[in-house]
Amino acid sequence: MKFEFSTFKTVASCSLMMFANFNLSAQETFKINSETISKISLENSNVFPVEYKEIEYFPLTEGKVFTESYKNFLDIQKDTKEQYGNSKQEDEEFSDDEKYEIGKVKSTTLAKRNAYVMSEKSFNSWTELYGTYNEIAKVKSITDFEGSNEVFKEIIIDNKNYEETRTRFFDINRLVKNNDTGKIYYFPRRIISEINSQEDYLVVEKQLVSNGYKAYEQNGQKFINTKHYKVPITNILKQLIGKDKDYLRNIDLRFEKMQALRKQSLIFVPKMENYIRLYRLQRNKMSKADISSWTAITKSAMNLNTQFVELNDKMWETDYEILDKNYLKFSNELDDYLGASKGVLGL
Fold first, then answer.
1. What gap in Å lies between CA 194 and CA 340, rounded to an integer?
2. Are β-strands 111-119 and 2-6 bridged in parallel, bridged antiparallel, or unpaired?
């Protein structure tokens, strides 16, 4: 079975296609080698070879086609007949002008044109596809419901006037060329994204290793440990390091500043705990001196906590696991007592 990559624009009212401009231009580049595809399955990848060749087709010509209103009428009649077993025909209510209009229909004469044709072929391994690739066109998979069930694979380049009526659109994919072999292939955009993501991981990992970090893998995800964080190797990390080459060192320094603020705040934990216990026993009988002291301590803790939050907010782009588990335990205690004190004192 073969699928045509047509340089045509779909006409809404028929299943053939009209000529549209097509221009090959190198765009996105990616590599296929043993590393970039190590985590990508070729099975059900929908990668196919493509050949540019002359084909025969029935061009479009002007002819009589049903009007939209008449087609809607026929659809209703069909549905009525399927539901109730009969249909009251009122076809005579439509004049010929209401039934027909001039549109595009298949010619009965064969013509020839050049087109990209995709053959359905399964690759045994990725090694057949090794090389560096350039994108030469964006591709939309199109299923035309007008008449046949034939599936067209169409090249669309900067075509803003593409008619979507009676056509189902799927994800934009790619027509790509292997620069090493000169062969052309159809690649789903998903596969290219996965290949590029894997290549990003490799670039980041090599950079991290060269800077003295040790990469390791857990549950299919690679990580490195900084002084204070367990950091996943991702494309986001690549972007952050690209903006700040000292990013990892800086997040450790920021953590140490937050840790110093937390340690200062922790001295207030037993004091706030003591006043909370006293409040539970005395309630409204607490002395003004105790309430004043409790308020002063809570405000001091709040001030340090505000500085901590400001630093922590600068880490919004990350969700790294903190290596020191005790740090989290003590942080939670501070949050609990500070929250309780603020609630009672109305701060």
1. 48
2. antiparallel
Neighbours of 331 (CB within 10 A): 17
For the chain, state the CA radius of gyration: 34
Residues 8/21, Cβ–Cβ less than 8 Å: no
3-state secondary structure 246-302: CHHHHHHHHHHHHHHHHHHHHCCHHHHHHHHHHHHHHHHHCCHHHHHHHHHHHHHHH
- Contact (CB, 8 A) for 340 and 280: no
Alpha carbon distance 118, 128 (integer Å): 17
Alpha-helical runs (H) found in the chain: 68-84, 96-99, 189-210, 235-243, 247-266, 269-282, 288-313, 325-345
How far is it, in rounded angstroms, from Cα 2 to Cα 200?
A: 35
pLDDT per residue rounded down to tens, the chain (347 residues): 444 444 333 322 222 222 223 334 445 688 898 888 877 877 767 788 888 878 787 888 888 989 988 888 888 888 877 777 665 566 667 888 888 999 888 888 888 877 777 776 767 788 889 999 998 877 664 444 333 323 344 443 333 333 333 344 445 678 889 999 999 888 888 888 888 888 877 888 888 888 889 988 888 788 999 999 999 888 788 888 888 888 999 889 988 888 888 888 888 888 999 999 999 988 888 898 999 999 999 999 899 888 888 887 877 666 788 888 777 666 777 888 888 999 999 88
Residue in the block written with tokens 């950079």: 207
Q: Rounded distance, CA 228 to CA 105, Å? A: 69
Locate 227 and state its tokens.
């002084």
Q: Which of 167, 186, 159 lies closest to 175, judged by CA?
A: 186
CA angle (74 as vertex; 68, 80 as ends), nearest 5: 135
pTM of the full predicted structure?
0.51
d(CA 331, CA 19): 67
Side-chain-facing half-sphere of 242: CA atoms under 13 Å: 9
Report the residue count for the chain: 347
Q: In angstroms, rounded to a whole number, what is the distance separating the alpha carbons of residues 9 and 95?
A: 32
